[in-house]
Every structure is written in C-alpha cells, then in structure tokens.
Design goal:
Elements lengths: L4 H15 L6 H8 L3 H4 L6 H19 L9 H17 L4 H7 L4 H16 L4 H23 L10 H7 L1 H12 L4 H13 L5
Helix pairs in contact: 1-4, 4-5, 4-6, 4-7, 5-8, 5-11, 6-8, 7-8, 8-11, 9-10
C-alpha cells in the first residue's frame, strides 16, 4: 500500500505517544514507517510541517466537539466548556500541549480560535473583547497542560518541613483545598472558572 500523508502523521503521533516529541526526527519517522527519508519528504517537507500536521491532528477532536456546545447559552459557560474540551484533546497525547504551542501555523488551532470567537460574538460579546477572552482561555489551558505534561524531576524535591517554613500560606491553602475532597482535575476547573469570569469554584 502506498504511503500517504495521513499515514505519516498517524505513525508520527504513535511515536510521540510512545517516546515523546524529542524522539521524533525525520530519520526515525522514516524508519518507523518503513520507508526511506527521501520518500517521507514527498509527504512532509520538514519537522516544522510535521509539527503543524501533528497539532492539526491533536486539535481535530476539540474542534469537532465545539458543535455539541451550541445549546450552552451564556458566553462564560460556553468558553469554560470549550476550554475543558481543549484540555481533553491536549492531554490525549503525550506532549500534546507542547506540540500545539509550538505549531503557530496550525489551521486546526486557528479554526478552534475562530469558532470560539464566533460563538462568543453570537452570544453578544463584542468582537475585540471576544478575541481577548478566547486568547486568555486558550493560553491558560495550553499553559496549564504544559505544566501537567512536563517531565517529573529526577531528583527529590524539597523536604516538607522546609516548604512549611518557606511557603507556609501556600502549604496551608493546598492542604485545605484537598482536605475538602477536591481532586487535581478540580484545580484546573476551579482556576478556569476564575479565568473565564465564572467566579470561585
């Protein structure tokens, strides 16, 4: 069967999920696809184009799910739900947020932004304000997932007693938050509510 661009992107995403973005080179991708590098270049010119194609693939499910939010009336509630959809799409793949953050020319990423702005304008938000609000929510979400997907340090962190001495208010706030039954996912949704203007979680 002839190699296609879609198959190349699928193979690349499998490699990302297995070994991380840093392991993906045109040479390793060609080897995994069972073709020569010159054959690969017929479909993907370079790593920048590959990253954009990966970002498009990662963003596609998020873009597709926006239509299911049409019945969400309020602009704040809509933007909140869209950001949750975006986070789910980024977290579905290893280094998903990094790939999307670095793929500035991804059409799917831009189409997601366009659809979000259109939805806010349809709900009465001025275009200039809609753009700023969408940028804030998107960049918060991508940045949040970047931290979630960052490599775990190999060395041990500071001793708890040192943390309690140096940042006592932070430690107390963390303990109170999780003692109330909150989960790590709640941290995202509660902070997102603040970003989109839905108040405290």
């Amino acid at each position: 069967m002839a190699l296609t661009r879609d198959a190349v992107v699928t193979t690349a995403l499998e490699l990302v999920d297995a070994e991380g973005l840093d392991a993906v080179t045109m040479r390793t991708l060609a080897r995994r696809a069972g073709v020569t590098a010159s054959t690969l270049y017929w479909h993907i010119r370079d790593k920048d184009e590959l990253r954009e194609a990966l970002a498009d693939r990662i963003m596609a499910p998020a873009l597709a799910k926006l239509s299911s939010l049409e019945t969400t009336a309020g602009e704040r509630e809509w933007l909140f739900a869209a950001s949750v959809v975006l986070r789910d799409a980024l977290r579905a793949h290893r280094d998903g947020a990094r790939i999307v953050a670095e793929a500035r020319d991804s059409f799917a990423r831009s189409e997601f932004s366009d659809a979000a702005m259109t939805a806010l304008v349809a709900r009465g938000v001025a275009l200039a304000n809609a753009r700023i609000r969408v940028l804030a929510a998107e960049r918060f979400t991508v940045g949040y997932v970047l931290e979630e997907q960052a490599p775990v340090p190999s060395r041990a962190g500071p001793d708890l007693s040192e943390l309690e001495r140096r940042i006592p208010t932070v430690i107390r706030a963390i303990r109170e938050y999780f003692a109330a039954g909150h989960t790590p996912d709640d941290v995202f949704t509660d902070t997102l509510r603040s970003v989109v203007g839905l108040g405290e979680g």
